Amino acid sequence: MLRRRYERWLDRWETDLATRATDRVVRPFEWGAEWLADLELPGLRRFTGGDEEEWLAEVNKAIILNGDLYFQHRTPQDFTLDGEWLRFTSPLETPYAENNLVEARWFPMPEGKENRRKRAVLVLPHWNSHAQQHVALCQGFQKLGIPALRLSLPYHDRRMPPPLTRADYAVSSNIGRTMHATRQAVHDIRACVDWLEQQGFENIGIVGTSLGSAYAFLASSYDTRLKVNVFNHCSARFGDVVWTGLSTRHIKASLEQNLTLERLQRVWDAMSPRFYMDQFARHQSKKNLFIYTTYDTTFLPQYSEEILACVRRSGAPHKLVVLPCGHYTMGESPFKFIVGYHIISHVARKLG
Known about the structure:
- This protein is α/β, with parallel strands linked by helices.
- It has 13 helices and 9 strands.
- Helix 6 (175-198) crosses helix 7 (211-222) and helix 8 runs antiparallel to helix 10.
- The longest helix has 24 residues, at 175-198.
- It starts with a helix and ends with a helix.
């Protein structure tokens, strides 16, 4: 009885938080094959027109088989630290000049402290996060003597091209653009790791939340330099989250007019952590923390449990934390303090 009352109360709270945004737009469905038309992978034919859905399904298969090539980046040559802001040109170009300039906020060691273990952590916020979100988490790391770099994800913050008011181009009903944004995020993450290495850091961790968690998983699967991982909110398949999540109903409204969930999975599985699990599990020295919530209406618990089942089968070392809240309510008191403790303590104990 008490549990049901708690669940109803939390569901009302979660729904209220999720529906406060009034700028969600149902955008037209687009295959977006042009975003991947120049892709060169073994066995992948060039797109010259025709059935875009079938070609995108072939692209997804080729990416999963050749993730090392698809996510291989170029080290930027124009790193600039201006006060607390690191800026550089994204290794993956888009048609939007604003998005091509990567920004990451730097939280260095406090004055007078020495970073003997040469530790640093990269923080990836959630989808549609604004510039001040996750700053407190970075400051928490900083106070413990662990420098933190908060990366603005593609199409977020000052990387958002006008007239957008939300990061709609990061995840949308444009199939190819969403895939391209995911690839760009992984390239940007690895470029940030390059910069941290150039500053002399040897023990580097990553913390990703929600969409940032998916990006972090893909990056860490192919980058051995990321030694400690925190995946805050996790799910097995990208398409499942968008199709069933409370916060992506406006995207589904466009997708479902043109696709079924099964067809969506075929063209979005290359962004799904479950298909990179064998690659991820090869790195047995990595220290991994997975976090999910029992009342999540955005990353449904069944999908989090699915990815954890994949992790267990793979033999990848990991720790699991399950919190009695939802996706949005995790960012509210008291849950934000609880999850902050788990994230910071894991990184502090395991990194270096």
